[in-house]
Design brief:
Blueprint (H helix, E strand, L loop, with lengths): L2 E3 L2 E3 L5 E3 L4 E5 L5 E5 L5 H19 L5 H6 L3 H14 L4 H18 L9 H13 L4 H20 L29 H19 L3 E3 L2 E4 L5 H24 L3 H6 L5 E2 L4 E4 L10 E4 L2 H11 L15 H10 L4 E2 L5 E2 L10 H14 L4 H8 L4 H7 L8 H6 L19 H6 L1
Antiparallel strand pairs: 1-4, 2-3, 4-5, 6-7, 8-9, 9-10, 11-12
Helix pairs in contact: 3-4, 4-6, 5-6, 7-8, 7-11, 8-12, 12-13, 13-14
């Protein structure tokens, strides 16, 4: 039997004052007296809560408490911390883990959820609608929804909840609300980008400028500095070409070591710890890239990076401006969007590979393998720029349709073939 009471305490002036919050007193599973605050000021609510805790204590003593009952007594933040530990143990990408936890804590803060009983599908749907109303894209909303669903599925597998509260949350259609659609580079555009990347470091250093009040002064570079800038340009151009010919992501390029490159077989390996899919993957290299890498390595140790400095996004954007593929707006910001609103970034080089494979008539199954995708629709839908495909030539290659002989008699008669059809 639980009892409720309001304890006395001493205030700052030393006076004996009765608390406004009700407390409960009941026997714990071990038979010892438990006294704890109920956190409510209403007496009837306090009686109900005290009775619930006393019954739960008796059930625990009798061995009737389920894992769901145990989980219900813990705070939501405790469960989120446990979920974080699981993600860490699985060695998921840090950016993915941070994003999942950010979305979960954002939901808890916005809805005031502090325990598992506060997880509610209707409340979550309203929160997502409010987030959408602030101008977030469909992709951002889906990220929040996916975080909630993954968390609830994990709770269900761990027997911390009896049902999935977010099972009815649906995804938004991202195709109708793409904020930054990427485009691919044509062969001609890719060549311009590589030429600019190769020459821009030295060109920028030797560009006429104002020195000591004199305009048009061309800086004089030491031979060692000139050689360094030329090597920098070659490395930058090779990084772009390598990304466009292999489909390696920027992070994968930066982590590539010579030990991962097999020059004899013309392949390279992407270890599972560096791959987005967390699986060991292999990439075939063009013969010309193999020769460039063979000349580039020299006697470098196997543990050295192939690309010590992968160009940053700002560097790529400046190269795109110099190549005439981007522009600088009135505020001095680089705008990489074209007339259709499609943008260029480092991931566009990966899309360039998929688009060039499609334009070359490569089978979609083979293209999926080259792109290291798990599903073929990902290759066709997101990594193929239809504007680079020869759709006009494809239409012209259709077989012609036989035409009936339309020459009739001069007096209006019909031809023999047409008369048979009639």
């Amino acid at each position: 039997m639980a009892k409720i009471y309001r304890p006395f305490y001493r205030d700052a002036a030393g006076r004996r004052v009765r608390s406004d919050v009700w407390w409960a007193s009941y026997r714990g599973p071990d038979g010892k007296r438990v006294r704890e605050s109920l956190g409510v000021r209403d007496k009837r609510s306090a009686e109900h809560l005290a009775e619930e805790r006393a019954v739960r204590s008796d059930r625990r003593k009798a061995g009737l408490v389920t894992p769901v009952d145990d989980a219900a007594e813990r705070s939501l933040e405790d469960h989120v911390s446990d979920f974080e530990s699981v993600l860490v143990s699985r060695e998921v990408v840090e950016r993915y883990r941070v994003d999942r936890l950010f979305c979960l804590r954002l939901y808890a803060k916005a809805t005031g959820a502090s325990a598992l009983r506060d997880l509610d599908g209707v409340r979550a749907s309203s929160w997502l609608s409010e987030e959408r109303a602030t101008g977030l894209s469909a992709r951002s909303i889906n990220r929040r929804r996916d975080a909630l669903c993954q968390f609830s599925r994990w709770l269900l597998r761990e027997r911390r909840i009896g049902f999935d509260p977010f099972a009815t949350l649906g995804r938004l259609n991202e195709d109708v609300d793409r904020r930054r659609p990427r485009r691919a580079l044509s062969i001609e555009e890719l060549g311009r980008l590589l030429d600019v990347a190769r020459t821009r470091p030295l060109a920028d250093a030797t560009r006429p400028r104002k020195i000591r009040g004199v305009e048009g002064v061309v800086p004089r570079l030491a031979p060692a500095e000139r050689a360094r800038l030329e090597v920098l340009g070659e490395e930058r151009a090779l990084a772009y070409e390598f990304a466009a010919r292999t489909g390696l992501r920027r992070g994968e390029l930066g982590k590539l070591r010579w030990v991962d490159v097999d020059l004899a077989r013309g392949t390279l390996s992407v270890p599972a710890r560096h791959a987005k899919s967390r699986k060991n993957q292999w990439v075939d290299l063009r013969a010309d890239l193999v020769e460039v890498l063979r000349a580039r390595r020299g006697d470098a140790p196997a543990t050295d990076p192939v690309f010590p400095a992968v160009p940053a996004l700002k560097v790529l954007q400046r190269d795109l401006v110099a190549a005439g593929l981007a522009r600088v707006d009135e505020l001095g910001k680089i705008d990489t969007r074209d007339e259709d609103g499609q943008t260029l970034d480092f991931a566009s080089l990966r899309k360039t590979l998929g688009s060039h494979l499609a334009a070359a008539g490569v089978s979609p199954t083979v293209a999926k393998t080259v792109m290291r995708h798990s599903k073929i629709d990902l290759t066709l839908k997101h990594y193929t720029d239809l504007r680079l495909l020869d759709t006009k030539g494809a239409v012209e290659r259709l077989p012609g349709i036989p035409r009936a002989d339309r020459e009739g008699d001069k007096d209006g008669g019909t031809s023999e073939r047409t008369s048979k059809l009639l």
